[in-house]
Specification:
With 472 residues, this protein is an alpha/beta fold. It folds into three domains: 152 residues, 5'-nuclease (Rossmann fold), CATH 3.40.50.1010; 73 residues, Elongation Factor Tu (Ef-tu), domain 3 (Beta Barrel), CATH 2.40.30; 198 residues, P-loop containing nucleotide triphosphate hydrolases (Rossmann fold, 3-Layer(aba) Sandwich), CATH 3.40.50.300. 32% of the residues lie in helices and 21% in strands.
């Protein structure tokens, strides 16, 4: 590799581990003006992982295509000098070339690792990074890996190692947008002057101005603490002027949705989003027992069977087992998905248990509901377009941003997509609370006039479940 180029105070070289490229194929374009180094063992591991239909295999093949495009027509001398790297934009490489260069391992470097026995791929990558650090003392050499154990070994040997952060949309999961905001005590004193109000059929609107409005955005829920406090949603924001609409109170029995009423403020906000015909995309976060699936299913049934707004409900989820896998399952696509849909069946029992007419009436109702609810696998979503459907994606925290994009773009005219999940229960390897596809869409859709988000906070299962959540 060449010496540092003129004009830089300190040069940075990032050595990429295989798992970074398997996680994000565009990673080589995301280091701006810095240099990227790929050891030969990484290319060998990429070659071994290119076969199959998994997300990792598809990413490997995409990485190979990117590398092939960068090397197209390049001579051996050009490769030794480093290939110019374009910058990344919206998940792909832009044509604009940055100052960074891509280097490959073109020579054998002395990698003495006396404290690490064996010749595994991780040790080889670590050895190359250590040798690179010794050969280029003028540069800051960093190993980038999503493997925690490799980063631990690197720290032991004095090699600076970092996780891959470029796919994070927020720095900390605690900073994730909740979709709600409490109004300060003096809010109306500062913003109530010259306020306008009007009614449109059964809807009540307010137009107000003030400094707090600048931080608002469409479909944000604002509320006053107290028994009779105002609860409203932001319909539009222009500078320091906003239009608020009072929301429906689904906590009242007369406003129940398919027999379900909201038990707390956040559930009421969620039902307002789920029942709003102007909102096409809804994300609901919350721990187990907060009512995510029950509220969503009740809203879907009310709009499918009562209002006839949707032709059917489609429910799907990521099929990642909690324990050991139970092997292949027989039957059709719907029968194979049945074991994963226990939450759906449990909530259907809740929704039909109040039906009059005894056992036979409940059985007939269950048959009707099952005929309008389709269970589908995510594996067969690619290339499909859903028209006038109410789509429920459960356990969405286990999707990568790329998978989430592939699913959301399946929605056709008249379709509403609801994503449910708990980012504290992620089962997919290399995904974290800050890199989950659910976190990704919550942030990217924030402020769009036809999307909304609510984080549910309080469990509503039973006193036993509440105590277990707090104590265990």
């Amino acid at each position: 590799m060449p010496t540092s180029r003129a004009g830089r105070a300190r040069r940075s070289i990032f050595v990429l581990d295989t798992n970074v490229l398997m996680h994000d194929p565009t990673a080589i374009f995301r280091f701006d003006e810095h240099d990227v180094y790929i050891p030969m063992i990484v290319l060998e591991e990429l070659d071994a992982g290119k076969k199959g239909l998994s997300e990792a295999a598809r990413n490997v093949r995409q990485v190979s295509r990117f590398l092939d495009e960068l090397m197209h027509g390049a001579s051996k001398e050009a490769i030794d000098r480093g290939l110019p790297l374009p910058t990344a934009k919206n998940g792909a490489a832009e044509s604009r070339t940055g100052n960074g260069r891509l280097f490959f391992q073109t020579e054998v470097l002395d990698s003495d690792l006396p404290t690490l026995p064996g010749h595994g791929a991780d040790n080889a990558i670590l050895g190359q990074t250590l040798a690179l650090k010794r050969a280029h003392v003028e540069a800051d050499v960093t190993l980038v890996s999503k493997d925690i154990n490799l980063r631990i070994k690197a720290a032991i040997l004095g090699v600076h190692a970092e996780d891959y952060f470029s796919d994070q949309t927020i720095e900390d999961a605690d900073l994730l947008y909740t979709g709600t905001q409490a109004l300060p005590v003096d809010f109306w004193e500062q913003h109530g002057k010259d306020m306008q109000s009007w009614k449109d059929q059964h809807r009540t609107f307010y137009r107000l101005r003030g400094p707090a409005v600048r931080d608002w955005h469409s479909n944000l829920f604002v509320y006053e603490d107290g028994a009779n406090g105002v609860e409203a949603t932001v319909r539009s924001v222009t500078g320091e002027e906003a239009v608020l609409e009072l929301i429906n109170d689904y906590r009242a029995e007369r406003h129940s949705v398919w027999g379900v009423t909201a038990r707390n403020r956040e559930q009421n906000f969620a039902l307002n989003l789920l029942m709003d015909p102007e909102v096409d995309f809804v994300t609901v976060l919350g721990p187990a027992g907060t009512g995510k699936t029950l509220l969503t299913l009740a809203a879907g049934l009310a709009q499918t069977l009562d209002n006839r707004r949707f032709t059917e409900i489609i429910m799907t989820r990521v099929t990642i087992p909690l324990g050991e896998d139970i092997g292949f399952l027989p039957g059709t696509e719907e029968e194979k998905m049945e074991p994963w849909m226990g939450a759906l069946m449990d909530n259907l029992e809740v929704l039909t248990q109040g039906q009059e007419g005894g056992h036979w009436a409940r059985g007939a109702t269950n048959d009707l509901l099952r005929s309008r609810i389709k269970i589908r696998s995510l594996n067969f979503m690619r290339g499909r377009t859903f028209l006038n459907r109410f789509i429920i994606l459960d356990e969405a925290q286990n999707l990568t941003p790329k998978q989430m994009k592939a699913l959301v773009t399946r929605a056709g005219p008249g379709t509403k997509l609801v994503c449910l999940g708990n980012i504290a229960q992620i089962d997919t390897p290399y995904l974290t609370e800050t890199t989950s596809g659910l976190t990704y869409v919550v942030n990217r859709f924030r402020g769009w006039a036809h999307s909304g988000h609510v984080t549910l906070l309080r469990g509503e299962r039973s006193r036993l479940a509440d105590f277990a959540s707090e104590s265990l």
